[in-house]
Design goal:
The structure holds two protein chains of two kinds.
Chain A: H1 2-21, H2 23-65, E1 68-69, E2 79-80, H3 84-91, H4 93-124, H5 132-144, H6 147-157, H7 165-172, H8 187-212, H9 216-224, H10 229-240, H11 242-256, H12 261-266, H13 278-287, H14 292-323
Antiparallel strand pairs in A: 1-2
Chain B: H1 2-40, H2 60-66, H3 78-109, H4 115-125, H5 130-143, H6 150-154, H7 161-172, H8 176-184, H9 189-200, H10 202-217, H11 221-226, H12 235-239, H13 250-270, H14 272-282
Helix pairs in contact in B: 1-13, 2-13, 3-7, 3-10, 4-7, 8-9, 10-14
Classes of the chains: A mainly alpha, B mainly alpha.
Chain lengths: ~325, ~290
């Protein structure tokens, strides 16, 4: 053992002697290494140049802008404002309403997607289910369609007139028609229904992938022990799906705080401010009122809020896991 | 014995219930599509009576929807928007795959100083919501003079932390021997990447391509910010022009939406497995 460990040392010595004797080879090796490094860096350069110009600089700029009074319409230079934008924002009742609306949207979509998505995945995960592929395709179809097109069609579904599909169905069931998107009390609910419809197939697919990872032997063992179907789900499937569930929960919550397209297309944030979300407000402030400072303060707040939220969710999840 | 037959009939009831739920659910999911298609076939004059099965069928709505944008600019039809979306989608997907895989290869295989930092930077880009950087990004693109241009819609998305991550993960699974053999034969890093690594990475590349193409085809917020010129509008952006028709011309509106939805549905149906794989893979993003 000792002998073999000593051997490389001897080689190094020999090499250095060789190096002294033949310096050319060493410089060549060095040149080769430099060439290799340059080659490697040239291969990653395009990606990191894009990151630098279009992500890293904008992130820093976003924080910087949030401290300035800046409108791209006026010719005057940005003026340092300290935390004024943040003070203005937290004092703004529209901001508070839009936070509340965003939370409402999140609560109205995430739990429904998780529960329905899991239920669908469990129902569709059976081996000898007739028409499984067809059903999966149908459930997944909304995911691939464009959000704009889906929102426009759903704004007809939820049209306040009697011709809207939602009102036609109410009528068939013997209920009076509702205002849906035109009713400030129902507008957010309508947006939530549409959003659950749109993304349900996605959640289902991720759960289905998670279900594939659960070993079948566990179910077989449980069956021998006389477990019922529900017990298998309760004590095997759900606990073993925890990583998947956690992943979906975090991405869905973070995604739901960035809702924009649906509300922009279906309601424009209205009626009143009843469906104005944080990103709707950011868009209005930044690109209609051109108050880039305020809009940046909003963006920074959202960013920090989301970081905090995902950190909190991760912690809560871990804490619960220890209890388990 | 009685218990057993009871159990069997109970199982049968459960089975029927399961199918009932699944089929009802599928109907709810499909209803907006079916309603959209049937409305698009209904003449706009019989407005109040849109039903699932139209009583009178017409294709006139499709012609009107195709030419709807000519009201704003004579030279622009729905085809223009399709073409724009296609250009943006192809010009993002193609180069992004090359750029991401190159970086992924280096981060997976080559020894360079600062590799870990570079990798974490790439991962970090995934944690930044696009909306957070939208305003400064707008200012950057404006300064570059790229407002109202194709490059403004394309260049900011030519690299993604997610793509780099996926390619790096994949390249790490390829046995080192294969690459060493090439190096001994005197292949440069580029040669090794092109002739050894890329051919092996076909499955990842394909799923990534689908994922990216679908993502860029549906881009909405960014073009909304930087594109005003109707000739450059992509499909999602152009569709918002149809919103104004929701009072009287539902047939034409639905025809427009059907035309816009059809291509992606056809692509999806013909490559379903790839799509689902892409979605599951995309979910690793978090």
């Amino acid at each position: 053992m000792k002998h073999t460990t000593r051997a490389p040392g001897g080689n190094v010595q020999a090499a250095s002697i060789l190096g002294v004797v033949r310096p050319k080879r060493r410089t060549r090796a060095l040149l080769f290494r430099v060439g290799e490094l340059l080659e490697s860096y040239s291969m990653i350069a395009p990606a990191y140049m894009v990151f630098l110009v279009f992500i890293f600089i904008p992130v820093a700029w976003s924080f910087y802008l949030s401290l300035f009074d800046y409108s791209i319409l006026s010719l005057k230079h940005p003026e340092f404002a300290g935390l004024e934008n943040f003070a203005k924002m937290f004092g703004d009742s529209v901001f508070r309403v839009s936070v509340w609306n965003t939370v409402r949207y999140s609560l109205g979509t995430v739990p429904a997607r998780l529960v329905l998505g899991l239920a669908l995945a469990l129902l569709l995960d059976q081996k000898n289910l007739f028409g499984k592929n067809f059903l999966r395709t149908v459930y997944f179809l909304p995911v691939v369609t464009s959000m704009v097109a889906a929102s426009i069609v759903w704004s007809l579904v939820f049209n306040a007139s009697e011709a809207g599909l939602a009102n036609q169905m109410l009528k068939a069931l013997g209920f009076p028609p509702k205002g849906w998107l035109a009713d400030s009390k129902l507008a957010m609910l309508s947006v939530c229904i549409m959003s659950v419809w749109k993304e349900l197939g996605y959640v289902m697919t991720i759960f289905l992938a998670g279900l594939q990872g659960i070993p079948l032997e566990l179910y077989e063992a449980a069956a021998i022990d006389g477990a019922t179907g529900w017990q298998k789900i309760r004590f095997i499937t759900i606990p073993l799906l925890r990583p998947t569930t956690f992943f979906i929960l975090v991405t869905e919550v973070i995604g739901s705080f960035q809702v924009f397209t649906q509300t922009y297309v279906m309601t424009g944030g209205g009626p009143g401010y009843s469906t104005t979300t944080l990103i709707n407000l950011l868009y209005t402030k930044g690109f209609f009122e051109f108050d880039m400072g305020y809009a940046s303060a909003l963006a920074v707040t959202l960013f920090l809020g989301l970081l905090l939220l995902s950190w909190a969710m991760r912690r809560a999840f871990r804490a619960e896991e220890i209890v388990y | 014995m009685k218990g057993k037959s009871n159990g069997r009939s109970q199982g049968l009831i459960l089975e029927i219930l399961k199918y009932a739920v699944l089929i009802l659910g599928a109907l709810v999911m499909a209803a907006p599509f079916l309603w959209m298609v049937s409305t698009s076939l209904t003449p706009d004059s019989v407005i109040i009576s849109y039903r699932l099965i139209p009583t009178r069928v017409t294709l006139a709505n499709y012609v009107k929807a195709w030419n709807f944008s000519r009201n704003f600019d004579e030279s622009v039809s729905l085809g223009t928007f399709f073409l724009n979306s296609l250009i943006v989608s192809v010009c993002i997907t193609g180069p992004a795959l090359i750029i991401d895989s190159l970086a992924g290869y280096v981060l997976a295989r080559r020894k360079i100083p600062g590799k870990d930092l570079l990798f974490y930077l790439a991962l970090g880009t995934m944690m930044i919501p696009f909306y957070v950087i939208a305003i400064p990004l707008y200012l950057v693109v404006r300064r570059l003079g790229w407002l109202d241009s194709y490059q403004g819609m394309i260049v900011p998305f030519l690299a993604s932390g997610f793509g780099i991550f996926m390619f790096k993960q994949f390249f790490q699974t390829i046995p080192q021997d294969l690459e060493d053999a090439a190096r001994v034969d005197g292949c440069s890093a580029y040669r090794t990447y092109v002739s050894i690594m890329l051919p092996l990475a076909k499955p990842v590349t394909a799923t990534m391509a689908i994922f990216k193409a679908m993502w860029s085809w549906n881009l909405f917020f960014w073009p909304l910010l930087i594109i005003n010129n109707i000739k450059l509008k992509t499909l999602p952006l152009a569709l918002t022009m149809f919103r104004g028709l929701n009072v009287t011309q539902w047939g034409m509106l639905c025809a427009g939406m059907t035309l816009a939805t059809l291509p992606i549905v056809i692509v999806y149906l013909s490559m379903q497995n790839m799509f689902q794989k892409g979605i599951v893979m995309g979910s690793l993003k978090g």
